[in-house]
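stage 2 :: seqdesign
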């Protein structure tokens, strides 16, 4: 979270300071000039998008690839659909009741569920505090059976305030999920019978992954994986996920070991200290291939920058007693730092509460109103 906030602060500072962009004729920096790269989508990826969206004056494109059905906002809408289609599905209804659409708490459910003698829907209708929820469910159930999925969810999110309630609890990033959810409803209706049950099945069987066009030219900061950035460039590139090293991937826990004829035989890999010689050699070769791919990916990341490159990282665990840091040995951050530190200059900056190591030019980024900055700038600070 700290790193995500620092990245957002830098972008916000750059826009306000009107940093000059040499590759764009020295014009002031715009949001579209910034590309933020990570190795994989995870907590840091989501935290960066959240921090950028919370920064005043910064537009962000959101995730480059969105698995709609995995997001809590979509899961809440799907749970409601299940409950409306199957009134006996108390578990789905309970999940929907705890969503922002209804806002019930665990205490509310404990008040209703244990004493009930029948279905949860009936208990809601009979409880004086929740009669209105029962009526709302009846209305939505009638619409769900008569209307197309897009029309039903459009009314739920718009007319009935569902979108407003979801954004109020989950934050503005949930808006991207809701937009893609509705777009998928349109896509589904164009090729399949327009039923709510069919649409929910469509989402769950893997038809819910959406890839955004990150070359659309909109004035937005792009946040994406290094793999997704292949073929793209930006004046300012921020490499955020740099302090960890991937472990060798063993599909199914298997290693390919050559037999006496040279044919590869899959062998189940156990503990490293119990490897026989052939398996140990195969493990070393797999790790070497993984390291080579890791370094090739770093090259891809570094060459996305046209004017300025910022390398940073977040150490998420405490350092060992015999080490000054908690970074993995051979990580991207260390590879870059080892190469640039001898020629770098440590300088304080206004967008971070600690100095950064700047390579090539120790002075700050100039404003477009002053002078065009020289290319090849690298800042790196964990």
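stage 2 :: out
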């Amino acid at each position: 979270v700290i790193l995500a906030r620092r990245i957002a602060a830098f972008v916000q500072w750059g826009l306000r300071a009107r940093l000059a962009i040499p590759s764009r004729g020295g014009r002031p920096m715009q949001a579209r000039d910034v590309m933020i790269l990570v190795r994989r989508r995870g907590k840091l990826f989501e935290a960066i998008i959240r921090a950028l969206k919370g920064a005043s004056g910064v537009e962000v494109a959101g995730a480059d690839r969105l698995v709609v059905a995995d997001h809590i906002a979509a899961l809440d809408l799907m749970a409601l659909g299940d409950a409306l289609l199957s009134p006996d599905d108390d578990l789905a209804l309970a999940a929907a009741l705890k969503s922002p659409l209804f806002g019930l708490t665990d205490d509310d459910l404990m008040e209703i569920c244990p004493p009930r003698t029948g279905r949860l829907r009936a208990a809601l209708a009979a409880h004086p505090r929740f009669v209105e929820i029962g009526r709302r469910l009846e209305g939505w159930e009638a619409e769900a059976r008569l209307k197309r999925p897009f029309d039903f969810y459009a009314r739920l999110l718009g007319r009935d305030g569902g979108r407003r309630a979801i954004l109020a609890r989950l934050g503005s990033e949930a808006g991207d999920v809701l937009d893609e959810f509705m777009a998928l409803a349109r896509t589904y209706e164009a090729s399949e019978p327009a039923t709510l049950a069919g649409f929910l099945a469509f989402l769950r069987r893997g038809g819910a992954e959406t890839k955004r066009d990150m070359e659309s030219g909109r004035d937005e900061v792009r946040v994406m994986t290094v793999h997704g950035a292949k073929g793209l460039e930006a004046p300012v590139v921020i490499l955020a996920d740099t302090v960890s090293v991937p472990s060798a991937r063993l599909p199914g826990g298997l290693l390919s070991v050559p037999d006496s004829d040279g044919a590869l035989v899959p062998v189940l890999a156990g503990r490293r200290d119990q490897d026989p010689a052939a398996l140990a050699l195969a493990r070393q070769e797999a790790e070497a291939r993984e390291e080579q791919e890791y370094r090739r990916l770093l090259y891809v990341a570094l060459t996305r920058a046209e004017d300025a490159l910022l390398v940073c990282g977040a150490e998420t665990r405490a350092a060992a007693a015999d080490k000054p840091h908690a970074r993995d040995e051979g990580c991207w951050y260390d590879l870059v730092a080892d190469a640039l530190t001898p020629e770098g200059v440590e300088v304080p900056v206004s967008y971070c509460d600690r100095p950064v190591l700047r390579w090539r030019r120790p002075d700050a980024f100039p404003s477009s109103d002053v002078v065009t900055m020289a290319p090849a700038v690298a800042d790196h600070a964990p």
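stage 3 :: structure notes
- The longest strand covers residues 305-312.
- DSSP finds 13 helices and 14 strands in the chain.
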